């Protein structure tokens, strides 16, 4: 069996840790090729060239994984290798959703006792995501996090950035359609579309959340000001809410029309758009996950 390792040195994948990971898993493979990312786009390009390998081992954070997913989705489905994820970033949200240890060597040790789990992929316009799509408060907060603060404080940095956003937060108008029917038309403070179960290292606490059911969780809120701050702090950004100001739906497809171009966050990567076409692609990728 052959494995390709994609390692991002800037996400904590330093030479010592890389060597320890290789030493931990080398007995499982007949051949291992290591490719290190040097610039944005490298991980996606390496992933697109990984069709000859059974396993694609990703050492990096959420940004590296996002690139890899978008590279793999350019390959025919039967040519995509199974992904072995070694968390080496700050949040590692999808690794947490997979119940992987966030300590890299511990995650590597589990390869010997892992099985391949199919996971759903979200198609968002012309790109792909695994974990979440955020508009409004969520997208603005993640963009505002200072990199040094993120590195030192992790999810606390996310909370601080979120609270800062309340000073500038204005509702925006959104129309959400599902199957040609309008399910919401009006102002919201944020829109969250989730496939994974963590946001900024914090569990979203949605009991129906699953990356294997062919559905995404769609949560939006009109709550502004102190009530929202209180809920965010008491729930630690959890989205499990009973208030009428918080709406939670499940969908396999949705179209989002925004009244003006907005910042969109897909798994921590940002772009601007006035319309989002979101489809769930069931079981498109497979990951090595711990056996229970």
From TrEMBL:
Source species = Exiguobacterium chiriqhucha RW-2
User: Which keywords annotate this record?
Assistant: ATP-binding, Kinase, Lipid biosynthesis, Lipid metabolism, Nucleotide-binding, Phospholipid biosynthesis, Phospholipid metabolism, Transferase
Q: Does the keyword Lipid biosynthesis apply?
A: yes
SMART domains, alphabetized = DAGKc
Q: What is the lineage of its organism?
A: Bacteria, Bacillati, Bacillota, Bacilli, Bacillales
Enumerate the GO terms in the molecular function aspect.
ATP binding; ATP-dependent diacylglycerol kinase activity
Instruction: Report the protein name in the record.
Output: DAGKc domain-containing protein
**What is stated as this protein's family in its record?**
Belongs to the diacylglycerol/lipid kinase family.
Required co-factor(s) are: Mg(2+)
